[in-house]
Design brief:
The chain is about 55% helix and about 10% strand. The protein has about 450 residues and is of the alpha/beta class.
Length: about 450
């Protein structure tokens, strides 16, 4: 009778089996619990197999052992004592390009949404050539360059003789143009094809519609792959969305491992905020951390920018409260979904306040109208999280005037009339336009 692994192999195509199941081994069956135990060589392969081939394995288990049987996949985690001891004196690696010292695996905050791509990046760093080329895609400010450079840094730590080149696609273009002008293309090609072990190419989308550059890149990638050199490429869009790229170059990209980095979840953003704050000695309350994590989403750079701004303020003034924090980072907050144009927003606020929308943005100084205008401004900034600069344009006021209004209404919030109007806006406005107020 054939073994279970032989039985499973018949249900997976040869290419996928050789790529992902090479380290898979059978580790016995728990008959009492009806669990088949499988083991693979590393964490990333385990997660990938379970995610992509879980249903295939499940069906194979039930067909082989019977209905009701399930499986688990573990990975072999070598302990420190099982690893080869490093040299007493480590050689200094040859630096072909400067890497950001903060872009390390240790500094990358791992959440469930990006655990897979983190594990894959770590595997590429520890075992160069196993996934080649390795393509990292995703939106701006999510950590693509961080992971790419972390791969290069870890490779140099593991092997000081390895030659790692990090280069952006724009630099690739500029250096090639200079080489063409100087008639030194042989040196340009030698640098990219002969003098390195690892190529880290960032922002490859920059080469869209630049066919002459793509042609050079294609031959560079071909030669490096033929020599077994590791290639890591970053793009802000999926490989299929790289318009104007040679089909043969797209094919080279697709033959490797393509993974997308996802925007950080709320819990991951909270951890990022707390780490950045800790790194810069910024004291934040839980309320502050929650506010930043809820209102700055999808971009780690803006989270870091917010903390740096708070750091400067804390060092300058020595104190930092919630209201001051909101004012400092208001322009970094996510724009909330709009129900229509800005003028439509004024119309909706005016309708709730029962006032002419033209008067709400006018220069009239009548007390009742001025109070309604001030509360409308306060509501837009504090409740709808619309940036101060946008509210200034909306109400045809200066930024300074808006900031003064915010402080003024803040000092009047205990007033019955002010509280009543704000309460009416919160109830009627939210009800009228749904989730706008978040």
């Amino acid at each position: 009778m054939k073994s279970f692994l032989e039985f499973l192999r018949e249900r997976v195509n040869t290419k996928d089996w050789n790529l992902w199941f090479g380290t898979l081994r059978f580790d016995g069956v728990d008959e009492e619990r009806k669990i088949v135990h499988l083991v693979v060589g590393n964490l990333f392969v385990r997660e990938w197999i379970v995610r992509k081939y879980g249903r295939v394995i499940k069906r194979a288990v039930e067909n082989y052992y019977g209905h009701g049987y399930d499986f688990v996949v573990d990975f072999e985690n070598l302990g420190e004592d099982e690893r080869k001891p490093g040299p007493l004196v480590r050689k200094k690696p040859l630096i072909l390009s400067t890497l950001n010292p903060n872009f390390t695996f240790e500094n990358f905050i791992v959440g469930e949404e990006n655990r897979l791509i983190y594990s894959a990046s770590l595997e590429v760093a520890e075992n160069p050539g196993i996934y080649n080329p390795f393509i990292i895609t995703g939106g701006v400010g999510l950590g693509k360059t961080h992971l790419m450079q972390a791969i290069g840094r870890r490779m140099m730590e593991n092997n000081p003789d390895v030659k790692v080149l990090y280069i952006t696609s724009e630099t690739f273009m500029n250096e090639m143009i200079e080489a063409l002008k100087d008639e030194s293309m042989h040196r340009f090609r030698e640098k990219l094809r002969k003098k390195l072990d690892v190529l880290l190419l960032d922002d490859v989308q920059f080469l869209m519609d630049k066919r002459w550059l793509q042609n050079e890149l294609f031959h560079t990638i071909n030669e490096l792959m033929n020599m077994g050199k590791q290639i890591v490429i970053c793009s802000d869009r999926n490989v299929k969305e790289l318009r104007g790229f040679h089909e043969r170059l797209i094919s080279r990209f697709q033959m490797g491992l393509n993974l997308s980095i996802k925007p950080p979840s709320y819990e991951t953003r909270r951890r990022i905020v707390m780490k950045f704050a800790g790194d810069h000695s910024v004291v934040l309350t839980n309320e502050m951390v929650d506010y930043i994590a809820k209102n700055i989403t999808g971009n780690v750079r803006r989270l870091k920018g917010a903390i740096l701004r708070l750091c400067v303020s804390q060092e300058t003034d020595g104190t930092l409260n919630f209201q001051k924090m909101v004012d400092l980072i208001s322009d970094l907050l996510d724009p909330l979904p709009r129900c229509g144009a800005d003028v439509d927003l004024i119309t909706k606020i005016s309708r709730v306040l029962k006032v002419d929308p033209n008067l709400l943005t006018s220069g009239s100084r009548k007390r009742e109208l001025n109070l309604l205008r001030m509360i409308g401004i306060y509501f837009c900034v504090r409740n709808l999280n619309i940036p101060v600069n946008e509210v200034a344009q909306l109400f045809k006021r200066s930024r300074t005037s808006i900031l003064y209004t915010l402080n003024k209404v803040e000092s009047m919030k205990n007033d019955f009339e002010v509280r009543s109007i704000l309460s009416k806006l919160e109830e009627d406005f939210t009800g009228e336009i749904g989730g706008f107020a978040g």
